[in-house]
């Protein structure tokens, strides 16, 4: 059986190893940490369930549905509450519900009358030249107006990428929006046609969902199926030889080398710089991809200590508002069993490209910042009865302008280095579902190569 070394035990590496073993390959996974799953980390303590990374999955593709079934997790799916359809955005220091329909937009206080009229004129804006790469901010200004950028795109980009819409490439970060403009000439037309197609599909899977016990159930189930998972093992070197790929690893003080037919790297791009490897070409654009830091602060409160009804997925904060946080998820509203009876759980994000230095502050500073902002936004009337925090020094890859260079370089490396493959959230999307799809596509290329 062909042997494959998989670098990284996050969701991409675990998925790839599982699929490769199903295809008859020998897969060895090397993970630096003592726990698999990468950024998918769940903690249960004092009756609260905290997600330190992704908090949910969206409607699964056929691949994800099959994976969940094969792992025996189908009966443990927990669908999000209907309240998640409501999202809040801060304007003038107050929470405003995001409109869910064109009539709702006319009644909403999120945009001024002038901003609303500008947004509703979107179908009459001509498509841009597809050869010109636009930032998210430039695209939104052109099609929807400045106000829609400030109170729409800006907070949502911060919530999804922890990024800056002025820096992100629309074509790479939000390809569906780019495709809607090119195919339909309008975002509103594209959204309408997509929604109609979705409604006509009688086999639609559930929308936002997780698992009983949290999202970590997925990587844990994958890890349990693998035959060779090496935790606490750091990859320090790669070398292509006449018989395959030699992978050098360090575990504690012991250095070990072994040879494999192929290597699949699922490392974050910034980690590749720490692996001694002769790429044969300039790989520095990979190492230069920004990964801004993000801090996650989870706090539990008695229900009566929070004035706001918490009747939604959460809140997002535009950069122009006088707050420090990026946003807060109403975790105990989204899913059941996230907090003890009579309590609520709020998960807040800080830092990102907007305030990178804030994410690196100590726990006390982060907690004080969150409490100060949530006191103003949600009417907190007491101290938390539960608190946890985690900082990701390198959180989410930024699909910045010119990101096509990164994707092309990954393709060139695979073409020029036989038996070397890449998968991860830097390839075709940052969501868990996109990352799993990236692993599957890399496995398919590897199987064809072998």
What does this structure look like?
- The structure is a single chain.
- The chain is α/β, with parallel strands linked by helices and 450 residues long.
- It folds into 3 domains: 3-40 and 216-289 and 399-449, 3-Layer(bba) Sandwich (FAD/NAD(P)-binding domain), CATH 3.50.50.60; 41-101 and 207-214 and 292-395, Polyamine Oxidase, Chain A, domain 2 (Alpha-Beta Complex); 111-200, protoporphyrinogen ix oxidase, domain 3, CATH 1.10.3110.10.
- Helices cover 36% and strands 21% of the residues.
- It contains 17 helices and 19 strands.
- It has helices at residues 11-22, 62-70, 102-107, 113-120, 136-144, 146-161, 170-173, 175-184, 187-200, 217-225, 269-272, 284-287, 331-334, 356-359, 363-378, 404-416, 432-449; strands at residues 3-7, 26-30, 42-45, 48-51, 77-79, 87-91, 94-97, 209-211, 229-230, 234-241, 244-251, 254-260, 262-265, 294-302, 314-316, 327-329, 343-351, 386-392, 420-422.
- The strands form 5 sheets. Strands 7-6-15-16-17-14-18 form a 7-stranded mixed beta sheet. The chain has a 5-stranded parallel beta sheet with strand order 9-2-1-13-19.
- Strand 10 (234-241) and strand 11 (244-251) form a beta hairpin.
- The mean pLDDT is 93.
